């Protein structure tokens, strides 16, 4: 799918603020893809659709998680996690995106997972550091992203876990698995 058509489809699903965030993720993902040798068109498409399901009603997301056999433990954790796997499902069902790598980058953009592909890393990171993001620590991750994809991702996942813990939020197990996997497989 071409960029203009993809953006059109996504725009009507999102608020203006979330759409601007999506444009930021798209630009950032393309530049990270170029830098780290990832397919730029796949990065562009995954970025455009990454938050496609963000504003679907909770009931609809819940129904999709159950009927599509997605991990049921998702339902026990923050519903903010749901739009990622549901977005991957809807990108295929409604936008006819069939590229498995693109769909997985959408699916794992919130929790990450063990053994993330470079495309998945690029999308996770672009979501975290796009120019519209302003929170403590983001500048450090932006700087790391210019040097080392893994190091930047580790910092982003660490910050996310610490942010959630400070607010007494539960951490989805896959988020911990993402962190441990990156640390254990770090080259240094
Ligand atoms: O959709 P975005 O706001 O662009 O960003 P996102 O998809 O990375 O994250 C959405 C929300 O999910 C964010 O407020 C933090 C939350 N989140 C991420 N990982 C976890 C989590 N919430 C819980 N409870 N557990 C997690 O592991
Ligand atoms: Fe998201
Ligand atoms: Fe996002």
Report the total helices.
Answer: 10
Bound molecules: 2'-deoxyguanosine-5'-diphosphate, fe (iii) ion
Strand tally is 0
How helical, in percent, are the residues? 55-70%
If you compute it from the alpha carbons, what radius of gyration comes out, rounded to the nearest whole angstrom?
A: 16 Å
Overall pLDDT, averaged? Answer: 97
Shape summary: globular
What number of structural domains do the residues give? 1
CATH architecture descriptor: Orthogonal Bundle
| Main sheet makeup | none
The SSE string, one letter per element, is HHHHHHHHHH
Q: Tell me the name of the CATH homologous superfamily.
A: Hypothetical protein af1432
Q: What share of the residues does DSSP label as strand, in percent?
A: under 5%
- How far is the N terminus from the C terminus? 39 Å
CATH class: Mainly Alpha
Topology, element by element:
Elements lengths: L2 H9 L4 H21 L3 H10 L8 H10 L15 H11 L6 H8 L10 H12 L8 H8 L3 H18 L6 H12 L4
Helix pairs in contact: 1-3, 2-3, 2-7, 3-6, 3-7, 5-6, 6-7, 7-9, 8-9, 9-10
This protein binds 2'-deoxyguanosine-5'-diphosphate and fe (iii) ion (2 copies).
One fe (iii) ion binds next to helix 5.
Polypeptide structure, described:
The protein is mainly alpha-helical and 188 residues long. 63% of the residues lie in helices and 0% in strands. The chain contains ten helices and no strands. Bound molecules: 2'-deoxyguanosine-5'-diphosphate and fe (iii) ion (FE) (2 copies). The site of one fe (iii) ion (FE) has 5 residues, from helix 2. Residues 51, 54, 77-78, 80-81, 84, 109-111, 127, 160, 164, 169-172, 175 line the site of 2'-deoxyguanosine-5'-diphosphate.
């Amino acid at each position: 799918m071409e960029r203009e058509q993809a953006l059109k489809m996504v725009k009507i699903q999102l608020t203006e603020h979330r759409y601007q965030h999506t444009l930021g993720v798209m630009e950032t993902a393309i530049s990270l893809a170029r830098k780290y040798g990832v397919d730029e068109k796949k990065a562009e498409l995954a970025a455009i659709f990454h938050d496609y399901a963000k504003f679907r009603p909770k009931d609809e997301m819940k129904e999709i998680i159950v009927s599509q056999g997605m991990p049921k433990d998702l339902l026990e954790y923050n519903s903010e996690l749901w739009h990622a796997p549901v977005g991957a499902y809807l990108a295929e069902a409604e936008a006819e995106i069939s590229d498995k790598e693109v769909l997985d980058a959408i699916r794992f953009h919130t929790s990450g997972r063990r053994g993330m592909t470079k495309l998945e890393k690029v999308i996770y990171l672009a979501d975290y550091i796009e120019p519209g993001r302003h929170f403590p620590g983001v500048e450090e991750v932006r700087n790391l992203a210019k040097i080392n994809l893994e190091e930047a991702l580790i910092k982003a996942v660490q910050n996310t876990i610490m942010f959630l813990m400070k607010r007494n939020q539960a951490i989805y197990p896959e988020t911990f698995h993402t962190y441990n996997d990156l640390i254990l497989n770090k080259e240094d």
